[in-house]
Request: fold
Amino acid sequence: MAEPTIICPQCKTEIKLTESLAAPLLEATKRDFEQRLAQKDADAAKRDAALREREAALAKSQETLDEQVAEKLKQQRAVIVAEEARKAKLALSNDLEQKSKEILEIQAILKQKDEKLAEAQKVQADLLRKQRELDDAKRELDLTVEKRVQAGLTATRDQARKEAEESLKLKVLEKEQTILGMQKQIEELKRKAEQGSQQLQGEVQELELESLLAAKFPLDQIHPVPKGEFGGDTLQRVTGPFGQVCGTILWESKRTKNWSDGWLVKLREDQRQAKAELAVIVSQALPKDIDTFDLLDGVWVVHPKAALPVAMALRQSLMEVAAARQATEGKQTKMEMVYGYLMGPRFRQRVQAIVEAFSTMQEDLEKERKAIMKQWAKREEQIGRVMQATVGMYGDLQGIAGKSLQEIEGLEFPALDAPSDENPSDES
Reply:
């Protein structure tokens, strides 16, 4: 093994490191290494002391942090209490949101009903298609059997056809009844969904009318009609300047998009039940020939913007009639009382009720007559189609079987009968 050497920096001479030469260098290197090691130990001790100081400071910071967390929790509890109070105040808004969800659920139900209706229509179309396929297959079977058995099969085949038609007719009727039931359910749901908003709007207009009448005529007695009674909305008992009752006006409030003539008949009946001298309908929608107000079949029809002027005029007329009646009170005989009854509104209302009842009976009779005529025409057309199909089927069979097919009374056509030698079965 070669000994280590060093080179002199001055003369560039290579000198071998013997033990005598290397000893002082090793000793110096060892002392330097020990000093460095001692310095590192001192530095490590200093770092340990600094670390212990830092741990003490960290513990102190932890205590401070715990105090801050407790204070923060206290603040959070106060915030939670305030939040719960705010949530309690939002209960009404949640109720409104619940109503909106119910409306959405109703709309979803309507959508499901529409989908079921579409499925039922599809089933009906499949049923009609299968009926056509069944009729085609049945005709092919009848022709095959007729070639093999040429006598006595017509009655059996007609009976089978009638039974098949009756069975299919019952199935079609069942599907039609199912579809009608679904349509009625859909219409009922739509009517209930629309009835809520219309009823709310009508009640708002009714309350507004009552407040206007009460403010304009403080002497009169304005009473809202309870639900379930004779049907009007408000009764106005006109009171004179001396406290005497001059008459009664029955008010009906409507807030819909379209006018209905049935309101007049109903309000006249309600007027008779309430024993009111006058009846008024306040409606946003008016008949075509009326702009603001008019007397229609004994009932005043008024737009809301003209309700107060019409009320003032009607009230004044009742007061004048009451004054005239009071001036002649005590002078009437029995004949005059009868004459007054005949000329008064109650007799006219009674006769009007009788006429309306007869008119309704006449309209119902006319509707029944039209329905029966429509049913007769439908049956006649169905019988014609059955006869036409029967004649066509008989002609097809006669073209196949020729004279061997038994004649059926009412279906024979001697001038059009084909000769027996042209029977296609013979050619085959």
Remarks:
- The radius of gyration is 53 Å.
- The longest strand covers residues 245-254.
